[in-house]
Write a structure and sequence with these properties.
Oligomer: single chain
Number of helices: 13
Structural class: alpha/beta
Largest sheet: 8 strands, parallel, barrel
Helix content: 40-55%
Shape: globular
CATH topology: TIM Barrel
Order of helices and strands: EHHEHEEHEHHEEEHEHEHHEHEHH
Amino acid sequence: MQNGHHTGPLGVGLAAICQNPEQRISDYNVYKQEMRLADLAEPLGFDSLWSVEHHFTDYTMVPDVLQFLTYMAGRTKKIKLGTMVVVLPWHDPMRVAEEISMLDIMSDGRIILGIGRGAGAVEFEGFRVSMGESRDRFVEAAEMVLTGLEKGYCEYNGKFYQQPHKAIRPAPHKSLKGRTYAAAVSPESSEIMAKLGLGILIIPQKPWEAVASELLMYTDVFRKTHGVDAPPTVAAGWVFCDKDKSRARDLAQQYIGNYWQSAVKHYNFGSEHFSKTKGYEYYGKMSEQMNQVGIETSSQFFTNLQVWGTPEQCFEKIMDIRAKVGCSDFTGVFSYGGMPYEESERSIRLFASDVMPRLQNLN
C-alpha cells in the first residue's frame, strides 16, 4: 500500500487520557468519569479503546497503560485494546514483555501494541534515566521486547540492557506482528521504526502534509529492509463533535487550546533543553518555532490539525487525514483540557451515531 491509498472501512478508536488541568476536581473523580466514558466505547460500537502513558503531572495521569487496559479488558468482550504508547526507556523491557503477553492472553489477543521513547524531561528525571540516551535505549528495548514476544524468551546483550536468556511466561500465544506500532515525531525516529518493522502511530503535531512526506521515506526504508510494504498507519486526533457549527468551533478552540497549553507546560516546549539533548534536535526546532510565533499561534495551529465541527465536518476532516497519511484506523481523544464530562459524552455519542458508521462502512 502506498500512503494515501488505503481504502475500505476505517477502524475507529476512543482514547481515555485522564487529564486534570489546574486540579479543578480530584484525581479520583477524573478517574471515575474517564472510566465511565471508556465504558461507553464498546456498547457504542467503537473498534478499539486506547490510553497513553505519562507520569508526575496533571497533563495525563495514566502511569501504567497496560494496567488500565487490563482492567478494561475485563469489562469488555471484543473491543481491541491499544497502548498509545508504552514508553520503553522508563521500564525494564523483560517485565514489559511479560505484561504484554499476559494481557494478550487474558484479553484473547485483543492488544494493539504502541511503543515510544518519550519526550518529557520531568519523566526522565523522575525515573533517573538520561534523556540523551532515550533513542538508543528505545532501540535496544524494542529489539528485545519485539523479538522476545515472537520467540517466547528474551535474551539481549546491549549497551543498556544485558538480559540473560529467560522465558516469557505466560508464553505469548500469537504473533504481535502486524499489530505493533510506534509513535514517531522526528524523521530520524520514523527511519528507526521502519527498520524495526513497526507501523507508525501518528499523533498530530505538525502539518499533515509534512507527515505525509516523511511517511514516504519511512515506507521506502520499510520496503528495503523487510521486502514487503509497510502496514497502513494509525492516526489519532483530538475530537469535538456538535450539531451547531459555531458552538463546535468555539468549544474546540477553548478545550483543544487548553490541552495544548497543558502539553507545552508538561514538555516544557519553548525552553532550550531540547536543542541541548541528544536525539531531540527535531523537538528543539519545534520549540524554537514556537517561541517565534508565540503560544496563541502555536495553539491555533495545533487546534487546526484536529477533528472538530458538525458530524459532516468531522467526517470530512478524518477523510482528509486518511487521504494524506493512508491510515487504516483513526482514534479520537474526546475528553481533555478540563472539558465538562457531559460535554465530552455528548460529543462521543453524536460522533458514534453520526460519524462513526460512515467511517466503518467505507468501501
